[in-house]
Write the structure tokens for this entry.
Amino acid sequence: MSSRKTYYVTTPIYYVNDVPHIGHAYTTLACDVLARFMRLDGRDVHFLTGTDEHGQKIEKAAAAAGLAPQAFADKVSVSFRELIGAMNYSPDNFIRTTEPRHYRACQALWEKLEEAGDIYLGKYAGWYSVRDETYFVEGETEVGPDSKRRALSTGAEVEWVEEPSYFFRLSAWAERLLAFYEANPRFIAPESRRNEVLSFVRGGLQDLSVSRTSFSWGVPVPGDPKHVMYVWLDALTNYITECGYPDTSDALWKFWPADLHMVGKDIIRFHCVFWPAFLMAAGVAPPQRVFAHGWWTNEGQKISKSLGNVIDPVELVATYGLDPVRYFLLREVPFGNDGDFQRRAMIGRLNGDLANAYGNLCQRVLSIVARNCGGQVPGKGPLIDADTALLERARALLAIVRTELEEQAFHRALAALWDVVGEANRYVDAQAPWALAKTDPARRDTVLWVLAETIRRVTLLVQPFMPGSAARILDQLAVPEAQRAFSAFDAELLPGTALPAPQGVFPRYAEPAKAAS
Ligand code: MSP
């Protein structure tokens, strides 16, 4: 059995009513970078993503597509699976809520909640938004000029529902939740979201309807199959289904409680209020942290199907390249804030940060080495202050990136890496290795070694963000596979090691020429 420290990170499971867009790609990307970083940092990682396939919304979407819900879910789920390859994600598993193991976990959790006295039978009469799969009290809705009633927070239409329903005694959990937040200050991030959740819970909680009877596409309630479980109770349970629940002797149970549930800001209440309450009621430890990221708009506009401005991640990758897209999404916007997708900004980052700064650094250093040092890692002579200053800055990066990623501050981690890229470019100009060729070839070799070594360190840390490009750069530095984990961060490049011919890794983006009319 492994004694390495575990790290369990999850994405929300995606509704299969629609194909993936940039919002979904973003959430999974953030988790992918964390999973890759933690693996390279020696952690025993489990990274889970998947699809949320039950509920009225999916049932309706299936009917509209003329398919049975299961056939419909099977079809759309594939498009989320395909995104894994297109975005180079590295999940350890892909869960679907229609799997038998998930039914078992949901029903076992339900029985625990019932045994604990936290579930009772009643009747729900109130507003429901199928799009959000959420209950709303009247005060959270308003009637618009078109005389349709909508939820104030999401703008989704609500409908009146009156049906027998089981309830979870959420009202009894407010104090215990507040005590839990107090004892676990890292549980909700960023801080603004924490405040939002605290004030919601302090305002008092109502019991939550956890079953529906007006449709049947869901997990049947044990002992009362006229009811299917509320889709959010079902969906949240996926995180423990994966670890074997209710079988705590399962090999994956060691990953629970999860280190991180990554979610968008719209689904924080489900993850930070309902989920820990369900788990505590069932005697299961809540997750350690929930991070809520912001939402993307497209050139200033809310992304929506009706506006026709949905950003397809596959198209984005086809236009700008995979790694530039991965870089841009995590660099452009402070993680946690909302962000606006602008083509100009995307091209600016690609040509500026990637082609000019990082790509050019690698390209010019490696091509001088190829031309002047016999295609080998150059020799390292005595170091002067400028050399050690740059090497020290590169050496300090591992601790910096580790700290930033513990906080999910991807943008700050990347900014720290690119600071050193900038520093290295200034060092090249100042040391002018090309001018040393005639006067002091030994010094020229040392300068080139310092640069190659700096590129190696930066690139080791770029791996989780841009795995393909980083691998190509590490190949050009002849860093063996076995030395790409952070345990080898301090293993320096060995002078005399043969290097392959250098090749550019980040081409500039040029606007495609307009077709002649
Ligand atoms: N099925 C639920 C989650 C259940 S988890 C137990 C769900 N699915 S979803 O497909 O609607 O959304 C998944 C994620 O995509 C959410 O985290 C949401 O915030 C994110 N995004 C959807 N649109 C987005 C943007 N425009 N921008 C960024 N993220 C967005 O909710």
